[in-house]
Amino acid sequence: MTALAELTDHYRWMARYNRWFNQRLFGAAASLNDAERKRDRGAFFGSIHATLNHIMVGDKIWLGRLRAQGAPFDALPAEVVHLSEFRGLGMTLFDDFHALCKHREAMDAAIEDMAAALSPEAVSRPMRYANTQGHAREHPIWQALSHLFNHQTHHRGQVTTLLMQAGIDPGVTDLIALVNPPGAAVS
Predict the structure, then answer these.
(1) Which of 70, 71, 146, 171 lies most in the core, judged by the most C-beta atoms within 10 Å?
(2) Could you cite one Gene Ontology molecular function of this protein (predicted)?
(3) What is the CATH number of the domain that holds 66?
(4) 151 is in an annotated binding site
(5) Could you read off the pLDDT of 95-129 as tens digits, one per residue?
(6) How many CB atoms lie within 10 A of CB 1?
């Protein structure tokens, strides 16, 4: 197996992990009332709700850029990945937590579908786009995919800290727990 083929397998695993972790994270956040989710806790984006919105903003930015790169990324559903107007990285896409949850589920399904369609050829192609300041950028698609998953992980870690500070334990969130769940027999 080539390094790029292994990388596409890695992205499939990361997409599965993304969905699994988000289900746990949103489930834990749902145990708080709306005021507690939106309370400024001194985090970079302030609240749990705002940080979850920021992850969605980042996903929409990067998936929208990927969608513009052609197959297989053009199969990403426009209604899920399109960001109608960029108003900053801290913009609120969904004030309603239930709506944010539903869109997160659709986004995670789109990410898994995209990852399933990846090929070594697709991830090695150059990606051209303008960043949020309008500057032209170019790099291999695999770098954008790596950033997408790394960005999610970084900010979900912040949310788990905020949840713990609020007295909510999101449980085990380690990547390896997806393969070897806590309490499972290991051979």
Answers:
(1) 146
(2) metal ion binding
(3) 1.20.120
(4) yes
(5) 999 999 999 999 999 999 999 999 999 999 999 99
(6) 8
